[in-house]
Design a protein that fits this description.
alpha+beta, Beta-lactamase, 2 domains, globular
Amino acid sequence: MQHVTCLTRLFSLFLIAAGFTCQAVAAPPKENWAIERIDNYLNRSVEQGFSGAVLIANGNQLVLKKGYGMADRNSDKPITTSTLFDIGSVTKQFTASAIMVLETQGKLSVDDTLARFFPQVPTDKQGITLHQLLTHTSGLPAGIGLGDFTHIPVNEFINRVFQSALVAKPGQQYHYSNIGYSLLARIIEKVTDESYEAWLQEHLFHPSGMNHTGYLLFDASESRVAAGYRAGVLRTPSTLSRYQADGRIAWTLKGNGGLISSLDDMYSWYLSLKNHVVLSKAQLTRLTTRYVSEGGNSWYGYGWSLGVSPGGKAMVGHNGANGTYYFDFRWLTEEDIAIIYASNALMQDTASIGESLELMLFDHVFNPPSFTPGPVTHILTFVSQFTGTGQALRQQIATQFSDVITQRYVLNRAGLALLDSGKTNHAIGLLALNVENFADDGNLWDSLGEAYLKADLLHDAKVSFVNALVKAPEQGCYWCANARRRLENIKVRERAERDQPVSPAEPATSGHPATSAEPADSRSQKP
């Protein structure tokens, strides 16, 4: 590969004011080739279903600032860099930044243990430090089997976290844990006597000029929000609209993901970090120190992943996704380049675009592969146009997609996407076919159990959840807590049905209420 050695000179030719795209700049073709190639690549990707926005900055100068595709296909509303997206786990850097500020204020220390903040913490977790929560070395599992929009009281959430089994001894190994960052959010509330979001708004967002970022406490006009398209096909309610409907944020999400922002606001955050508006140079250094290996050439700091740029220099960043939205923030600190990228339609190649953009900036012979939606998108497109019975659909999928359903994730993701979109019968068809192909996979049985439960087929759901537990591995069963909880809920419902007196005027039937005892989990992170 031949790397570009004159990026600073190349980018200095693009004197682009905020709000303009690269097309507004007149520059010799041989010198604006990188941005032109990126723009052409993204425009070609739109033809294959891609939609999103990209912002590339060199220092304080914007060199590309543009939206691609539609924020809302129903109204032909285009995406711009002011469009609001769910930024997913990029949220973690704000939680980590808050901890840095509060430590400077003397309200806590990264060496503090959970025992200081939670008197009820069990013995095996008493020694977990804030440093270990920040670096994903606490030994806590990724989650507790609840979805992003499943609301339980904060004390119940904390108790469930504390009752969960450790996946490793605290401090011994890296294991990504969302609930660890939710504990940090709760600690922030405890030491400040403010809500997590209110504190972020006052001390991080507003000083950084981020007026369109948050969960609920910000200027969140629905007209700015990108609708979500699961696998690029199934329209889903925006994350923000779900927050507004609930009027609160679930503790399974708070502090670890789900903040809403735009590329314009995240660019303001980048400038704030560069210019030490809310964090000192020393605090930023602590955030971006290599504390623990993630494997390969990747390490984890405090809310940031750390790696190496194509030019062999330091790079920090983080990405995030919820199954529909995708967000990627890359900062090549030594080369003074930032790439901020978002999409409202997560498909097979969506996550690879950020890396492709980075490589195209440095290597003038690198041509990224054409954007490919992937098999999940192809199956969901077929299902969306199918008008036959569930059984006929199952047969058609088995025949027409036989070459791709040999990968167990394909039908699982497609089926769960259909389930989340209210297409329960079609979801059952796909998930049942997947279980037939991979009967030894407990995770797939758990997914099928969710579909049966939503269809109110309690017996079939019970059999599926039992199989999910029977076929679970000895360690690392991320679906087991969900399966056990579902079986308990089914038991409660069956007992209530047996005890319910039959009205003479209305004989009892085998039907049940349409809603289960607890809302179905958001399964966006399931493989």
